[in-house]
Design a protein that fits this description.
Layout: E1 14-18, E2 27-31, E3 36-39, H1 47-83
Antiparallel strand pairs: 1-2, 2-3
Length: 84
């Protein structure tokens, strides 16, 4: 089975982390006014797989932030040029 999902953040979108100590894996939750996304791995997966997934997610998130900062700087430059 293949699935595709688009999640578009708005000003109303929040990001929360649900932590369960040593009972179960944490859940990263993104909530908006009419959408929700939970990110975790199945409890049946080995901890090494959870860690690999979390590291890949963290790396992709860091890359997203870097790309967004580059974009924001370019847009800010464009906005400044438009204001002249």
């Amino acid at each position: 089975m293949t699935a595709s999902l688009g999640f578009y953040a708005t000003r109303a979108t929040s990001v929360r982390l649900h932590v369960y100590g040593t009972t179960r894996a944490p859940i990263l939750q993104l909530d908006g006014s009419d959408h929700s996304l939970a990110i975790t791995a199945f409890d049946s997966l080995p901890v090494a797989d959870h860690l690999a997934f979390a590291r890949a997610l963290a790396a992709a998130t860091a890359d997203y932030l870097t790309a967004l900062l580059t974009y924001a700087a370019a847009v800010a430059d464009d906005d400044t040029a438009d204001a002249r």
